[in-house]
Amino acid sequence: MSLIPFLKWAGGKRWLVKRHKDLFPDHFNVYYEPFLGAGSVYFYLNPTRAVLADINEELITAYSAIRDNWRGLQDLLVLHQENHDKEYYYFMRDESPIDPTEKAARFIYLNRTCFNGIYRVNLQGRFNVPIGTKEKVILDTDDFRSVSELLLRAELITCDFEHVINASNTSDFVFADPPYTVRHNQNGFIKYNENLFSWNDQVRLADSLWRAKNRGVKIMSTNANHLSVRELYEERNFNIQSISRYSSISASPEKRNQYEEIIIRANI
Questions:
Q1: Are residues 42 and 36 in contact, defined by beta-carbon separation less than 8 angstroms?
Q2: Quick one: which of 156, 172, 190, 241 could link to 30 by a disulfide (CB 3.0–4.6 Å)?
C-alpha cells in the first residue's frame, strides 16, 4: 500500500503517480531520487532500497527525524496544533531550533500552515513565506510510523544532484524532478527557482542522466515542456512525451490551469 506524502511541495508529483502509473518501471535494483521534495514517487513505489537526496538541508532533516524519532516529532506537532494562530506562526517562523526533531517539527508545521505550502527563503537563508489559510497541523492521512519504517530502508543525503545520479548503476532507477526554470507558466515561483537551479544546472542534469543512461540505469525525469529543455534531451537520445497537469500554485484562480510538462525516459 502506498503512503501519502506528509508535505505539500511546489511541483509535487502526486498527480503523476495517480494518473501515469504505467510510466514507471516494474523492476529495478536501487531507487535514486536526487530532488526529493515531498517524495510522492518514492512513497508510491515503496522500494526495498533507496538513496534519497535534496540540496535542502531542512527537508532532509525532516525525513531523518521521522525515521529516527517519529513519536517525538508527532508529539511536537500536537503541541504546534494546540498553539497555532497567527502570532504563534510568525513566532515559530523566526525560531531556529537546534535539536533535529524540533527542527523537523517546525519545518512540517510551517509547511502545513504557510501560504500554499511554498518553501522559500530570503538572502539570509531565513524562511519568509507568510501564513496561509489552512489551520490543521495534524492530518488524517498522517502515518509517521509507517513512513519511519519505510525510511529505514533508505539512505538520506543532503547534497547536489550530480553526486547522487553518478552513484547509480546498471538496473537501478533514477527519478529526477528538478525545479522548473523556464517561463512556461505564471505561478510566481519561476524567479525563485531560477536562483535555485540555473540553466547551467539544467545542462549538468542532462549530462548526468545521459551518463547514467549509458551505464544501463533506468531513467525517468520531468521538466517543463519548453523547446530549450526538449532539445537538451533529444540531443542525448532520450524518449520524450508530453503530459498535462493541473497547476494550483498561483494565488490567482484565473492563472490556475492545465500546463504541459515532459516526461524524459530511458532504459524503461
A1: yes
A2: 172
